[in-house]
Amino acid sequence: MSDPFADPDVIRRLLNESRTWAFVGLGDNPAREVYNQARLLQQRGKRIIPVHPDAREVLGEKGYASLADVPDASEVDVVGVYRRAEHAGEAVDQAIAAGAKAVWLPLQVIDEAAARRAKDAGLDVVMDRCPAVEWALRR
């Protein structure tokens, strides 16, 4: 049985066709994996939006304290949820409320209920996958 939250066509489309990624949990610490993932996608032409309670500028982009603070959040193609699994559901719910088009939960961030809520709300969902690895595999 295939994983409903790792559809290769959805992954390929999000990586190739998306323009704007909001990264929940993206702060200015280059030692964190979210920083590396955001930088990688930025280097590949994506606009990144840092979402972190500190709301600092990261990688040259203005930061916001929450998805609700992002102007025109409905224009965000993908919300990367780089929070621990126990906090992922809240970020997914904010992505749904903001009108985002997709959510991406990276490796080891698994919240089946939140993923199902997002899918039921019409969002594309990728869970337990790494954008960098998927980029290399599916480009």
From TrEMBL:
Q: Which Pfam families match?
A: CoA_binding_2
Q: Which SMART domains match?
A: CoA_binding
InterPro entries from the entry? CoA-bd, NAD(P)-bd_dom_sf
Q: Per the database record, which ranges form the CoA-binding domain?
A: 14-109
Q: What is this protein called?
A: CoA-binding domain-containing protein
**Species in which this protein is naturally found:** Actinomadura hallensis
